[in-house]
Amino acid sequence: MAVGMAMTNGGGQSQYSGKMTPFVVLSCMVAAIGGVIFGYDIGISGGVTSMEPFLEKFFPEVYTKMKHDTKISNYCKFDSQLLTSFTSSLYVAGLVASFFASSVTRIFGRKPSILAGGAAFLAGAALCGAALNVYMLIFGRILLGVGVGFTNQSVPLYLSEMAPPRHRGAINIGFQLCIGIGVLSANLINYRTEKIEGGWGWRISLAMAAVPASMLTLGALFLPETPNSLIQRKNDPQKAKLMLQKVRGIDDVQPELDDLIKASAISKTIKHPFKKIIQRQYRPQLVMAIAIPFFQIVTGINVIGFYAPILFLALGLGESAALLSVILTSFVGIFSTFISMLVVDKIGRKILFLSGGIQMFWSQILVGGIMAAKLGDHGEISKGYAYIVLVLICVYVSGFAWSWGPLGWLVPSEIFPLEIRSAGQSITVAVSFLFTFIIAQTFLAMLCHFKAGIFFFFGGWVAVMTSFVYLLLPETKNVPIEQMERVWREHWFWKRIVGEVGDEESKLQELS
């Protein structure tokens, strides 16, 4: 039975009525599997690159340095551009694919974009699992990147548009929760396959990505299109009204429908959304579309996702212990993301951003300090200090998992007006992939040269981004997605750029 609730919003904004219906919950659960495939890839790539049979077959130079070169620094054992290309090739493909996904999402709808992403990821999983040489492996990663590019562009939009405003945060964070589930699943599989005799367990790890990809591809066939997309593409208010009644579980959806029709009318005047988004009236959204994913990546979290097993090996933990440590951090991340789901629509986005930033900053500074003091270029850190580092990394992961992890996807997906929504989300995803690629491609070299200072490097960025949120990000909780423009006009800084409340009609005049 659906639970009835009135969608009330502060600041004198209009009311939307609606219920959290099973229809919405099931649709969003299927769509959020897009997060599972992303998380699985993050977890699996880090795990297989710590498996000796995988390194020996595809990256023999790294394997030789790890096993036989006793003179090389602990921080430099895994420094290989070919090895980092295995990880980072996905993100180059995802960056390019996200721009194609923008057109698919806007012209054909959110559902076809999700379907295309699932199918591409499925093909990439099959190719990686069957890889005979490093070129097959990297081409498979490129297909995986196309899949992730499409799903990361379309799924957060789908979730934000389907969700009732009052629960948009919790539902959208389901995407990040699924990323965490994907990472945990990958780490559990890596832990088991690493023990398979014969050295072919890595094939199972890579090929198992086909399981969530199949679930997403088949499930996408039955997904409904969002009311926003139906109005934008087909200009059929009656069909959109029927879908809106179905997803909200009530008959009286006219206030929300009126806002959707108004937003659609504006969007139809925009022929080139990527040109439009650079104009002054969209300056706050453009800044956030670039800054938030950039900051999300320079927290250093993807370093933990990709290279945690390698990091724990460098600390002196064995191969199995390193993989077990990553499983522990994955559990911490999922639990913390679930906490974020429970509180994000009650206490708001900004408090979570700030508290998570402070927590990440101090944990990184302490990790860097311990490694600088206790881990030299040769030998191992004591087991006691290794476990202290593990605890601090768990603290860091929990801070990310209830702040920049989920909110880095939630906030960009809810702030764009309909006319630039697909373009804005594509910019968000592209920036995320661009800097993920840069970090993935350079981290092992940075680790070799910066050594323990790498944690101070990322900690410095966390301090910058926490200050950025405090000063420039307005609170968006409970604001209907089609009325989000008001938060910029009420903000102390952005109102100087876009005008104050009461100037909304100027936007319509500019577009007419």
Measured as a percent range, the helix fraction is over 70%
Count of DSSP strands = 2
Number of helical regions = 25
Q: For the CA atoms, what is the radius of gyration?
A: 23 Å
Q: What kind of sheet is the major sheet? A: 2 strands, antiparallel
* N-to-C SSE string, H for helix and E for strand: EEHHHHHHHHHHHHHHHHHHHHHHHHH
* Anisotropy-based shape: globular
Category from helices, strands and their pairing: mainly alpha
Question: What is the averaged pLDDT score?
Answer: 82
Strands of the widest sheet, in order across it, are: 1-2
The amount of beta strand, in percent, is under 5%
Runs in which pLDDT lies below 50 for 5 or more consecutive residues are 1-14
Question: In angstroms, what separates the terminal alpha carbons?
Answer: 44 Å
Describe the structure.
With 512 residues, this protein is mostly helical. Helix content is 75%, strand content 2%. It has helices at residues 22-31, 33-48, 52-58, 60-68, 81-107, 110-129, 134-162, 168-193, 201-207, 210-220, 227-234, 237-248, 254-267, 273-276, 283-298, 301-314, 319-347, 349-374, 383-401, 404-415, 421-450, 453-472, 485-489, 495-498, 504-511; strands spanning 3-7, 16-20. The chain has a two-stranded antiparallel ribbon with strand order 1-2. A hairpin with an 8-residue loop joins β1 (3-7) and β2. α15 (283-298) packs antiparallel against α20 (404-415) and α17 packs antiparallel against α18. The two termini are 44 Å apart. 55% of the residues are buried. It comes from Acer negundo. One of its GO terms (molecular function) is monosaccharide transmembrane transporter activity. InterPro entries: MFS_dom, MFS_STP/MST-like_plant, MFS_sugar_transport-like, MFS_trans_sf, STP/PLT_plant, Sugar/inositol_transpt, Sugar_transporter_CS. Keywords: Membrane, Sugar transport, Symport, Transmembrane, Transmembrane helix, Transport. It is a multi-pass membrane protein.
